[in-house]
Amino acid sequence: MNEFVRGLKRGFPICLGYIPVSFTFGLIAVKMGFTPLQATVISLTNMASAGQFAGIRLIEGGAPYIELIVTTFVINLRYFLMSLSLSQKVSPELPFYKRAIMAYCITDEVFALAAMEPEEVSFPFFGGLMTTPILGWTTGTLLGAIASNLLSPMLQGCMGIALYCMFIAIIIPPARKSRKVALAVVIAAALSCIFKYVPGINTLSKVGGGGWAIITAAILGAAICATIKEVKRRRKAAAAAIAIERRDA
Amino acid sequence: MNYLYVCMFLMFLTTYLIRVIPIGFVRRKMENLWIQDFIYYIPFCVLSAMTFPDVLYSTTATGVEPHISVSAVVATAVAIIMAWRKRGLVLVAIVAVLVAIAVELIMPVLF
């Protein structure tokens, strides 16, 4: 129970951060012709910001099912990586149904906080962590859908930065503490920019709503950092081996 | 009408399957150090790649083609400084939104 409460407390800032973003989603969905209830159901069943925005755009345009599936898949593929990462942070004995419940709420922010946990992530903790963000995401959508037309387009636009600034607030403090993390952040950001701006390569950011570009940048960035560490580890091992040889000789 | 509900279901199914397959079925702790490091760096890399450079386009008014705007650049800089000083998520997000709004309001007056 203690763990659940700790999760609730940790998750509450995410809930607050979700309200403006989901509010914007509700607003846009209604403008596209969805009812407030439909918009809220989409939020409740998806818990995915970029995926939902892209999804309603496609549905509004009457896209074929396969296009909807592929786009949703690509934009949300990062959750696969997060879920894989989380699989290493839960107890191997954790039963499937608990994993299935946790999986539902692997969002960028919830995952980020769970990943920053120094210890194993318990089911009650994650349950607490996901509770208020789910409430915030759905009620925010409903409020936005109802309040549609009350906000000026400028204000709506400005609220779009909230989500990104939460990401910044999540990654900068650990990057300040660890040079390796800082390097990972810089490499991933640089790759992401390359995929967006360098002619020829930037076609990557134009398909699948930018999903491919993000995934490729993240995988490449993490692979580069892991390889740098591997090289250092081997050098250290080699140096240690030489030292032992010298000592023995 | 049916089209809409089939679409909503497909969105849910696709998103959920992506999330449930790894955590639901990977039970073994990975032994390989490279893979452990890779997984350690993934969250930072995903969040960073999602944020940059898209954050600079994120204050574009609804209904307008996304473009880099002064308000987003200023608000991002403020957010980075605040995050560097270890301010909380919500505070950083709220201040950034307010800064963006302030810049959007001031810009037309100045130019």
Write the layout of secondary structure elements.
The complex is a heterodimer of chains A (249) and B (111).
Chain A (H helix, E strand, L loop, with lengths): L1 H30 L4 H11 L2 H12 L4 H12 L1 H10 L8 H9 L3 H8 L7 H25 L5 H7 L1 H17 L1 H19 L13 H38 L1
Helix pairs in contact in A: 1-2, 1-3, 1-8, 2-8, 3-4, 4-12, 5-7, 6-8, 10-11, 11-12
Chain B lengths: L1 H24 L7 H19 L18 H15 L4 H22 L1
* Tally of helical segments of chain B: 4
Main beta sheet of chain B: none
Question: What is the global morphology of chain A?
Answer: globular
As for the number of domains of chain A, it is 2
**Uncertain residue segments of chain B:** none
What's the pLDDT, averaged over the residues of chain A?
Answer: 87
SSE topology string of chain B: HHHH
Q: Helical amount among residues of chain A, as a percent range?
A: over 70%
How much beta of chain A, percentage-wise?
under 5%
* Element string of chain A (H = helix, E = strand): HHHHHHHHHHHH
Question: Averaged pLDDT of chain B, please?
Answer: 89
* Structural class by helix and strand composition of chain A: mainly alpha
Rg over CA atoms of chain A: 21 Å
Number of DSSP-assigned strands of chain B: 0
Radius of gyration of chain B: 20 Å
Tell me which protein chains meet in the greatest interface and how many residues each side has: A-B, 108 and 75 residues
The helical percent of chain B reads over 70%
User: What count of helical segments of chain A does DSSP give?
Assistant: 12
The overall number of domains of chain B is: 1
